[in-house]
Amino acid sequence: MDFNNVEERMNKTLGVLTNNLAEIRAGRANPAILNKVQVDYYGTPTPINQVAGVSVPEARLIVIQPWDTNLLKEIERELIKADLGINPNNDGKVIRLSFPELNEERRKEIVKEVKKIGEDSKVAVRSVRRDGMDEAKAMQKNGEMSEDELKAAEDRIQKITDSKIAEIDKIVGDKEKEVMSI
After folding, report:
1. DSSP label of 34
2. CA of 160: how far to CAs of 5, 17, 88, 166, in Å?
3. Phi and psi (nearest 5°) for 179?
4. Which residues pair with 47 in a beta bridge?
5. Most buried residue, 31, 36, 42, 89, by most Cβ within 10 Å?
6. Helix (H, G, I), strand (E, B), or coil: what is residue 46?
7. pLDDT at 26
8. Model confidence pLDDT, tens digit, residues 53-97
């Protein structure tokens, strides 16, 4: 039984969770919200950070400075299409994204979204656990593993699952605190 495969798949789920939470706007400017925005760069969809300098000079401001000024309008159009909840401000040289203060109602909405993403991650981890358990049962049925080995394998898979779910709870809790404290 390959427990490394089970743990690796669960770790990938944690990585996806971390990336998804990084893209959630928590009140302060975070360039990660631009990760999914792509611009047409000579016919190729390209991430903004590969065609422009992205900086955060202040806590609530992202400045995007394209290396090719001809891309300003294209970047601005894609930012509007991405529906980030922020209107880009184009001054002819750079694009500024100003983040407004979050009110209490919006913070609670963001926390709900964070919890939903966390729950989705837990479901994914449990799915990996189920696959691992099914694999162990199939090995036992084929005579590759004894009844005791099956029980030990199931216990080990459950321990891995419990530790990953605890990690998810911690990551989600940290993001909730970040959102509510800003």
Report:
1. G
2. 11, 17, 44, 10
3. -65, -45
4. 38
5. 31
6. strand
7. 66
8. 999 888 788 999 998 888 888 888 888 888 777 788 888 888 998
- CA distances from residue 7 to 125, 134, 144, 151, 178 in whole angstroms, order as listed: 9, 15, 21, 18, 28
How many angstroms separate the CA atoms of 16 and 113, rounded? Answer: 15
Residue 131 reports pLDDT greater than 70: yes
pLDDT at 134: 93
Bridge-based pairing of strands 88-90 and 95-98 is antiparallel
Q: Is 92 left (phi over 0), alpha (psi -120 to 50) or beta?
A: left
Q: Do 60 and 29 form a contact (C-beta atoms < 8 A)?
A: yes
- Taking residues 120-149, report their average pLDDT: 92
With a pLDDT cut of 70, the percent of the chain lying above it is: 97
AA identity, residue 124? A
How high is the pLDDT of residue 8? 93
Q: What is the mean pLDDT of the chain?
A: 87
Tokens of 107: 């913070």
Radius of gyration of the chain (CA): 22
Query: For residue 62, what are the CA distances in angstroms to 59, 129, 177?
Result: 8, 40, 23
Q: Encoding tokens for residue 164?
A: 């990953």
Residue of 127, 98, 177, 180 whose CA lies nearest to 16: 127
